[in-house]
Amino acid sequence: MPVVVGVRFKKAGKIYYFDPIDTDVAVGDHVIVETARGLEFGDIVIGRREVGEEDIVLPLKPVLRRATTEDEQKVTENRAKEIEAFAICEQKIAAHQLPMNLVDVEYTFDINKIIFYFTAEGRIDFRELVKDLAAVFRTRIELRQIGVRDEAKMMGGIGCCGRSLCCATFLGDFEPVSIRMAKDQNLSLNPTKISGICGRLMCCLKYENHCYETSCVCPKKSPPPKIGHEVITVDGEGKVVSVNQNKKTASVLLDDGKSVEIPWEEIVEKEEV
User: Is pLDDT above 80 for 191?
Assistant: First the structure.
């Protein structure tokens, strides 16, 4: 099987596999790699390992070398140029009166291309804008329209949980999230409570969803009692008021007014008696 290393170009960005060849690189090293966009500066986040050919895109691009101090200095200079390019692009957008919002600017390591990321309600005719930017920067220009989730990932921020956004800190890819996941987890279906700052369903709805799928689908495991059903427990008869999928317990309000938390397997629904 091919031996690869995983390289990430941005914080919380997607991980790409490269052929380490004979380079002595380890996790945490800065490297220069060859990509479809040209030379790029990245970080090793996955050490040498063997992977199946079905998990990679052949032929693998090589890791050319470890990054030098000069390479790191060049990256710093590129970051400073990106700030200048952002300001210039905003001026050009205003001059052309285009209904678009500039989100980020990215220089490739070898300054072979400058990529401008933007959001807009619909399609934008930015051909004249590209001509103006090419005349200023004298290199290849790419304008890339992104969605609201990608915008949140690039901009960052604080979620309703009080922590930094998952997408901006560690999520490499966006996974599909559905309203069904919120229903299965007995969460409020109020859009303001289950949506992130991007306006889409929160990515964290996916994290525990497999627990709920397992308990509901697997016939070998005791299924959860349904909320509102009359049940019989070792402490007496009552009604299920809530269910904890992770702890596999249910809160039961007994007929005498007492509330108890009991494992599922110790609960029998009256309909089954």
Answer: yes
Identity of the amino acid at 222: S
Six token digits for residue 50: 């063997």
| Res. 122: pLDDT tops 60 | yes
User: Does the pLDDT of residue 240 top 50, yes or no?
Assistant: yes
Among 106, 102, 81, 82, residue whose Cα is nearest residue 91: 102
Separation between Cα atoms, residue 182 and residue 178, nearest integer Å: 7
Query: Tens of pLDDT along 245-272?
Result: 778 888 999 888 888 888 878 888 876 5
Bond from prior residue into 59 cis (ω within 30 degrees of 0) = yes
Amino acid letter for position 62: P
Cα(262)–Cα(249) distance, rounded to whole angstroms?
A: 5
For residue 271, the 8-state DSSP code is G
Is the model more confident about 173 or about 92? 92
Q: Give Dmax (Cα) for the chain.
A: 81
Kindly list the distances between the CA atom of residue 242 and the CA atoms of 83, 155, 227, 268, in Å, as whole numbers in the listed order.
52, 38, 6, 15
What is 134-145 written as a DSSP string? HHHH-SEEEEEE
CB 114 within 8 A of CB 140: yes
- Is there a contact between 169 and 129 (Cβ–Cβ < 8 Å)? no
- Per-residue model confidence (pLDDT) at position 221: 56
Distance CA 205, CA 211 (A): 12
